Structures are given as structure tokens and as C-alpha cells.
Amino acid sequence: MTYDLYIGDRTYSSWSLRGWLMFEKFGLPVRTHMIRLFTGNMAEQMAALAPARLVPCMKTPDGLIVGETLAMAESLTERHPEAGLWPADPAARALARWLCAEMHASFTALRSACPMQLVCQYPDFAPSDDVRTDLDRISTLWALARDRHGANGPWLFGDYSVADAFYAPVAARIAGYGLDVDATAQAYVATTLADPAFRRWRAQGLTVRYDPDPFPTDLTAAPWPGPTPLSAKPVSEGPSENALCPYSGKPVTDFLDLDGRVFGFCNPGCRDKTVIDPEAFPAFMALVDRSH
After folding, report:
1. Which residue, 20, 80, 230, 259, is most buried by CB atoms nearer than 10 A?
2. Which residues pair with 57 in a beta bridge?
3. Do the beta carbons of residue 226 and residue 194 sit within 8 Å?
4. Taking the model in full, what pTM does it have?
5. Which are the contacts of 268, defined by CB distance < 8 A and separation ≥ 6?
6. Start and end of every GST N-terminal domain (predicted)?
């Protein structure tokens, strides 16, 4: 019983990140399909998914098309009540739904001025008064959730919930534009950037290069502010410590070097995403530890 999830380009599609995290963080079975956002034929790519016209959207195992992340969240909750997408406590659950609804409908100044990009940080970005108003409201909502319901963990409601999936792109915007927020909000941003699932999404996105940049800017770029990845590099040949790809189990054809050790993968994509952030991929790190 596997879902099909249709997403946009990972480096830039904030809504797709939300949809993907709802599957990834709650262990729901899914096949991911890419809808390229910058090719000029998005409508054609989406034609078979009508009436959906935007990403993300999902197709359920019984063939139902569901668009919009709020609708996806509720549909997944109905179908998988055991997964715990929403907080179990009724008061926390009500607030989490409120936060998600406000995210879905608000913060247009922040979204317009700071389109999500996971490539770098623009530390010289100067937020407008409207962007600052959005940031203040976001900080208020995050502090409210953390103060009332966040004692048992680092996420908005302690344990990870749909609310964290919804606000992951907001955390990415704050990080990507070096926006000034209070200590509680900054700690939450750091938690999001360090999350292995978020890091996997970003690493997979950075395997694709864009020319021209979809969101060109004259701002000075600085390194991405998330955790510093292990230093890996692609190499042209083996032999590798492993004969089979840690992801697919297929014979290796492409290689990387990590601290003088060579590991193999079944295709350049598997290799390249791992080069970008090795620690984001538990299957690879298990291989590193097992082979050591």
C-alpha cells in the first residue's frame, strides 16, 4: 500500500518539502515523482493529476488524487491514525492545526521577499517592516507552542508533528536570509536544519544545478548555516570497500572518497547526494561504521 507523491524542485519548492516530510518523518510508504518547476511545461507534467494543478499532491494507494498540504495531512491522519501526525493531546492538537492553517494562509511578505532556497545564506538581506511583522508573529506562535506543549522534545509540540513539517520551510527562509529572530526561534531553526530528514532533502536537491538561477539576486552569498558536512569527494574509480550500493543493493559503478576510504554506489545520483552530506543518509553511515 504505497502512495505516490508528486513534488517540485527540492532546492526551491517549499510546499513540496512540507508534503515530503509528512511521509518521511512518519514512516509512510511513498514513491516520489519529480515535477520540474522551471521548464515551462508544468501544466503538461501535471495533466494526468487533474484536478490538481500545483505540487505537492499525492495519489493514494486506491487511486485518489489529493492536493494541498492541509488536505494531505488530514487524509493521511484518517488513513494512518497510528502514525501520530498530530499531537495526541487535544489542546496541543488544536493549536497545531491552528499554526498550520495560519502558515497555509499567511506570511505573504516573508514568502515574497525570501523565496526558499537551500543553497546558501544571504547575510546582508535587509528585511522590510512587513517581513519583520511576519517574523514577530512566527516567533510568537513558536514560543506559544514550545511553552505550552514542547517540554518533551525539541520540536514545536515536543515530538515531531505536522506543524514542524509546515514550518520547516520557514526555518529555511530564516536561515537562508540570515534573519534576526529571538533565541527560542533561533533554537528551533537550528533543530530543523540539523534534522537528518531535512538534510537528506537538501542534499538531494543540491545534486541539481540551475542556470540561470530561478531567483537571481545581487546579494552576497555565504555558506549555508546548517551543520558542517563531512568532507567527501567524488572519485573516478574504485575499488571500494563495498560491492553493493547501500541504498539499492545493486552493484557499484560510481565512487566517493571519505577520509581516504572509497565507497561505491549504483549511479551518480546516489553518489552525489552522499558527497553533499554523508551524515544525512543512515544507510551510508551504517556502511561506514560497519566497514571500519
Report:
1. 20
2. 6, 67
3. yes
4. 0.97
5. 254
6. 12-78
